[in-house]
Amino acid sequence: MKKLLSRPKSLKDVVFSYCPGCGHGIIQRIVAESIDDLDLREKTIAVAPVGCAVFAYDYFNFDVTEAPHGRPPAVATGIKRTNPDKFVFTYQGDGDIAAIGIAETIHAANRGENITIIFVNNANYGMTGGQMAPTSLIGQVTETTPFGRDPKNDGYPIKLCELLSKLEATVYLERVSVHNPQNIMNAKRAIRKAFQCQIDQKGFSLIEIISNCPIGWSMTPLASMKWIEEVFLKSFPLGVIKDKTQLNA
Amino acid sequence: MKKLLKGNVALCEGAVAAGLGSYFGYPITPQNEIPSYLSRRMLELGKVFVQAESEIAAANMVLGAAVTGVRAMTSSSSPGISLKQEAISYMAGMQVPALIVNVQRGGPGLGNISGSQSDYFQAVKGGGHGDYKVIVLSPNSAQEMYEMAYDAFDLAEKYRTPVIILADGIIGQMMEPVDLNRYEKKDFVDQDWWLNGAKGREPRSIKSLLMKDGVLEQHNVELQKKYQTISENEVECELYMMENVDIVVVAYGISSRIAKSAVKYARKNGVNAGLLRPKTLWPFPSKIINSLAKPNLKFLVVEMNHGQMVEDVKLAVNGKSAVRFFGKAGGGLITEHEIFEKLKKDQKSDIL
Predict the structure, then answer these.
(1) B87–chain A Cβ distance below 8 A for any pair
(2) Average pLDDT over every residue of B187-204
(3) Testing the interface with A: which of B193, B207, B215 to mutate, by most A Cβ within 10 A?
């Protein structure tokens, strides 16, 4: 009998600590599969953020370092500049990348660092209990916006891909989602393309992955998937935001 | 052969000779010669120089380079060092070796750009959050800027810890002849903690987040054991004119240069003064100070702040001698004459 699917080599055989229905498990699997597909495991140095995804270093089966909150793009800069032959990616949440670490993100992108960022946008701070994130939607109720996010008090959701697209040095920016199998397949295609962008030394790439946080959103996993489709994607439309991979060939 | 160099440039040459692989910096006075000099020197050597977007980013770039086993450093001055404390705490917890240089200026806040010694507490007591120490070296000449930068990396790697060179604006800016006498280090042997790709080995992770029951507690015990070992083995201090001494001046950095002249002058003018200069501020020469302390000996601590190292001297003396203090902060230099007057007065005084 032919084995069609097995655990990726880049994922350890351990139990994830993520909440039931959380998208991190799906995303880390397709990241691991992409690393395997491109034969990158033995040359990868990944950077884990602060937030739910910090535990990535217990799940990925390759070298991973921790970074202070929001600093993964700076840490990745240090790694990649010093070791241009290694494959370097960061795995970050919305609070990490677009709030406390937005300066590090913008400047790493602006220097055209040849790294890849996997940015998981689930519109709240999951690990700390569901507070407002820079990407929380207008009107979204969170632990710190009990009456809904009000632009007068809380500003507007940041669309990071669109923001970074204005920088000369960014090469490949795409927003994808993992709320159903079709989108998961598409997300994996985008991740592979971003990884290939780094392998080909074309420069900075970032994949924003719209994901769910059933516990933080106080929804069942199914309801959270539906909310992505019906509400979340209205504010964060999917698609390629910028693609200069052909221009830089 | 000696070269006439600014302290800051001598420090760069020491780090380069030690095999510095990556430098990340940010402009702030009075350390600007360091990023300026290395921006040319490192690129000419085919090594890494990046002017970071912030002090925070520079320190975290050092963290990134250092986890791969490369000798990495950043430099700044007081307000910038406050911003780097986040990464320093992480590197202490993650046990990552690196060099951080503080060419101190006046504080608090933005202060001014004159030399100062007001960051002693921040450097020797940890500086960031958590229960940790870093090795703190105190150069008092351009020559020592060169030598300590060279030695700092060996110390950092020996103990897998960040090392701080706590200089000051005057030592950094002053030009002196420097003997570039150290051989150039090139080849480094792979260590079993480096992140360099899991090829033919199990994957590695470097972290400070230790959530499982008891793991962080044990990690902290191990860190404290390491600090104990450092305290026992790495203390460096200079003793000067200690024969028949009645009063010992304790000073470091630029203050120790002035204090040395004051001690020489005092000896010629009827005051039996000596000088004890800690070259490592942490670990502190507590045992040496304690072994000297006795009822008929006095200590005078001279610092360019309002009394920081004096607390460590008092702890070391533990009531066995009188400990006096003389200092000023905010950019004004202490003069040889001021120290001599203080020595004359304190030597006569019987009050503890």
Answers:
(1) yes
(2) 95
(3) B207
